[in-house]
Structure formats: C-alpha cells, structure tokens
Amino acid sequence: MIPLRDNIPSASRPYVNYLLIAACTLAFLGELSTGPRLQAVITTFGFVPGRFMSLLANYGPLALPVMIIPLFTSLFLHGGWLHLIGNMWFLYIFGDNVEDFLGHRRYLLFYLVSGVGANLIFLMFAPHTMMPLVGASGAIAGVMGAYFILFPGARVLTLVPIFLFITILELPAYFFLGFWFLMQFLLGALSAASPEAAGGVAWWAHVGGFLVGVLLLSWLAPQRLKSRLRPRG
To answer: What is the set of domains in the chain, with CATH numbers?
Structure first.
C-alpha cells in the first residue's frame, strides 16, 4: 500500500522535515559521486552489527566514537533511488504533523533517537551480520508510530494493489499504520526463521523504530500527549 496524502494540514511549516528530506537526498547524491568507492563508503558509514559487536568486545568504551558515528550516519544513506524516494515520500506524508505536535527541536531529537533505537533493536536480532544497514526507514517508522498514536482517525488516501488491479481507497490511519506494522512484524518473524527470506530488508529495524517512536512521545511531550489523549465530554 502506498500513501498518497493524509487529510490533516500542518499548522506550521515543517522546516525540520524538509531539512531531513534534503539531507538524505544530498547524502545519496554524495554516495553516487564516489563511483567505485561507493561500497567502501557504505561499509564505513553504514551500521554493521558484526563490526559493532567486535569493537565492543575487543576495545570496550575506547571504541565508542567509532561505534556510535555509524548509528547516525547510516540514517542518511540509501541503497538506491527507489529506496530513497520511498522513504522520503513516507516521511513527507507523516512527518509534518508529528513535527507540528512536538515542535521543531524536539522533532529532530525524536527522529534521530528513533533511528538509532531502530538500529540497536536490529542489532539484537542480527548481532553478527556484516551486512551494512543503511536507510532512514527505522527513523521514519518511529514517525509513523507517533502518528499512529496522535492521529488514529486521520484519513490516508492510499494506492492499493488488489491482485492485477490497482485502486485508490481512503483508509483510517490506524488501519493503514496498524497493517503496515503487522506486515513488518510478520516478515521479521519469517526472516528470523529463514534469513534468506529477509530479502536484504531490515524488518526488525522497522518494528523497533515504530515501537521506539510510540514510547518516545510520552518522554518528549508528556503534558501535550496527556492533553491530546484526554477524553472529551
């Protein structure tokens, strides 16, 4: 399912969301400019769980800078145009309203912590893999988790493939995002039973990012969240 738009206009201009989209796009263009050194760049700045665990075991706190930097830089790298465009489109659809709720600075912190949290949860499920993890999808999953809590009744105009046909439906956000999360969880469970079924996708990073995003809301804006979720009547 591909979201086309939602029906909640942002009350303020989502500067941080635009900045994140621009940063990911510029980082990807930078990747393309490296030519034959691209794989080395991905390996260096992507998050590699096996390398992380090896550094932790052999050097402990001394290796913290080398261990921590890829947790952040990996969030801005992508594996191809479709990977980039798909991620940025989801961020564009769902990010503005979450930024509107949290405010610009807290939204930036929320995004980065969600992405790092997603990487660390993926580490729990694949601690020895040497495959570099790249992409903003873990952080964006956190944004989607926040949207799920904040705007469950929003309507999401969605492109839905049904067998050989494609139709456009207006779905409630809780259904669209709940179905998305369920699929990530099921595919993650399938990949745990059969690693080759993962298809190179870090499903558990998506699941982890979504859950981190849900939990972060109550830490970053507890009073706003309580006020928003308080029953009316």
So the answer is: 2-229 (1.20.1540.10)
Question: pTM for this structure?
Answer: 0.90
For the chain, percent helix, then strand, then coil, each to nearest 5?
70, 10, 20
DSSP per-residue codes, 79-129:
SSHHHHHHHHHHHHHHHHHHHHHH-HHHHHHHHHHHHHHHHHHHHHH-TT-
Q: How far is CA 219 from CA 1, 112, 140, in A?
A: 31, 14, 18
CA distance 117 to 74: 12
pLDDT tens, position by position, for the chain (233 residues)?
889 999 998 888 999 999 999 999 999 999 999 988 999 999 999 999 999 999 888 888 888 888 899 999 999 999 899 999 999 999 999 999 999 999 999 999 999 999 999 999 999 988 888 989 999 999 999 999 999 999 999 999 998 887 778 889 899 999 999 999 999 999 888 876 554 444 567 889 999 999 999 999 888 876 677 666 665 54
- Residues with a catalytic annotation lie at 137, 206
Neighbouring C-alpha atoms within 13 Å toward the C-beta of 72: 13
> Looking at the chain, how many residues does it have?
233
